[in-house]
Structure formats: C-alpha cells, structure tokens
Write a structure and sequence with these properties.
Blueprint lengths: L1 E5 L4 H12 L3 E6 L7 E2 L2 E2 L5 E3 L5 H11 L3 E4 L6 H6 L1 H22 L3 E3 L29 H8 L5 E5 L3 E2 L4 H12 L16 E2 H12 L5 E5 L1 H4 L14 H5 L8 H14 L1
Parallel strand pairs: 1-2, 1-6, 2-5, 6-7, 8-11
Antiparallel strand pairs: 3-4, 9-10
Helix pairs in contact: 1-6, 2-4, 5-7, 7-10
C-alpha cells in the first residue's frame, strides 16, 4: 500500500505524512519545492520519498502519480489565503479548481481512490443550523494557523480585535490526519464534515481560550462584528458542521477542540 500526498509544505500534508509513517504505510510527498526536511511545529518531519509536482500542470500531475505507482492520493494542496484570493481569483482557481481536476482525472484513469478537502466557505454562511454533507453549495470564496497568529500578536499587542459573529469549531490537523488515513484505508466513499468535537464557538471565544491555555493575561481581546473588522473577503457567519456521519460510518470522531488546543499549545511551548 502506497499513498501520494500533495501539499506537504502545509500543516495538514505534513501531519498526514507523519500519520502514514506511524502506521508503516509508504508515502510519497509532493509540493512545488522540496521542503520535506527538518522540524515543523516541534515535531520531526518524516523521512519519506519526495517528488516536486505542480498540480496546475496536467503533465506534471500525470507523471507524478503514474511514475510513483501509488494506490491512492490524499490531496492536501490548496490556496487557502482567502483575502489574497479576492485579489487574484484566477490564480486561486488555477490551484483549487483546475489543480484538483488534474489529479482527479489521473486517479479516474488509473481507477485509484482520491481524497481531497474542501472548506466551510462552500456554504452561504447564513443561519444557525449545522451544515450537513448533502447540503447545497452556495460558495462565498475559496476558504495561517490562528493559534500561532494570536500568540505572535500577543508579543507586541495589549489589545486585539477578534470577530464574535462567525461561529464554528476549530480543527487540529494532527487529529484530522488520523481520521484521513482511517478513511483512506476503507471503501466508505462520500462527503464527510470533519472538525474537532466540542461546542460551537466564535473566533473571539477561541482567541480567549488560546490565551487562557497559554497563561497569557496581558492581552485584552475585544469582540467586534465582521463588518467592524472589515476583512477583504467575506467570511461565513455560520460554519457549524454536522459531524454525525463520521460516527454513523464507524469512524472514530476527533477529540474535543479544547483537548486539541491544550496539546498544540504544549507543543509550541517546547519549540
């Protein structure tokens, strides 16, 4: 069994590769440039085969997947900078739409599974009901590590403005990687909504929890509306996800987000 993982320069791709290694499953990492060495977020990066691959280039994708002889693809590469996406929509579309299509075509041709990731931004962001996997898509836009950002800002700020009207649940890529590999080893194909378990919260609530966990008392977090904050890209107000399908299909859900936050802050302290 061998997997090809795209986007290993990112946090999710990195964690997926490490999860494969923990289970003695062969993995091949890909990205635009070789970054798969050293340490990331306090954990050693797994030593595994690496190939450069440009997902926006159909021939690069075709060669990469065929030459490595993998049994399935876990596609983690994506353009996730939403404000920049508003400025450069075609560049974003080239990566997220056409890049994904290039991989899907080769996987279809070879008849091998492909797992890839979307975003809460595919929904219209309204209402309060948790989104179910079968809900219709009404995209806002194409959707940095928030914890690191908050802790870095705390080094030279005494007050921070954080939106309190965008509601969802955080997701720790380390936990997600475990579920991703669990799923990839089955034939339970379909659309799943995955976040860490726990109550739904706003970004303001999350920021407060981060500083409490890190023992930081010198920063005042001020709740503001999305309109007051004024980001370039429109964010969804409602990012509540219905995660029940995970359990229904026999998979182990992710731990509570507060547990995930505690573990991640502990890792950052050791860096």
């Amino acid at each position: 069994m061998k997997a090809l993982v795209t986007g290993v320069a990112g946090q999710l791709g990195h964690d997926v590769m490490n999860e494969l290694a923990k289970r003695n499953i062969a993995g091949v990492g890909t990205d635009l440039k070789e970054v798969y060495s050293g340490v990331m977020d306090g954990t050693p990066v797994t030593t595994m085969p690496y190939i450069p691959m440009d997902i926006t280039d159909p021939e690069s994708v075709r060669k990469g997947i065929i030459d490595t002889g993998v049994d399935f693809v876990i596609h983690c590469a994506a353009w996730t900078a939403v404000d920049k996406a508003e400025e450069m929509p075609e560049a974003c579309r080239k990566v997220n739409a056409y890049g994904t299509l290039n991989i899907a075509k080769v996987c279809e041709e070879l008849d091998i599974p492909m797992m890839y990731f979307s975003t809460d931004y595919v929904f219209n962001g309204n209402g309060t009901r948790p989104w179910e996997p079968e809900d219709a898509y009404e995209p806002l836009v194409n959707g940095k590590n928030f914890i690191k950002t908050m802790l870095n800002l705390a080094k030279n700020h005494t007050t921070l403005r954080v939106v309190n009207d965008q509601i969802g649940t955080p997701t720790y890529t380390y936990d997600l990687a475990r579920l991703v590999v669990d799923m990839a080893l089955t034939d339970k194909y379909g659309i799943y909504h995955v976040t860490n378990e726990g109550d739904y919260i706003s970004w303001y609530d999350f920021a407060c929890a981060i500083f409490k966990e890190a023992g930081i008392t010198s920063v005042e977090v001020i709740p503001v509306t999305s309109e007051e904050y004024g980001a370039a890209a429109k964010r969804p107000y409602n990012s509540r996800m219905d995660r029940s399908k995970i359990v229904k299909e026999g998979f182990e859900p992710l731990p509570d987000w507060r547990d995930a936050l505690k573990r991640y802050v502990a890792i950052l302290r050791e860096m």
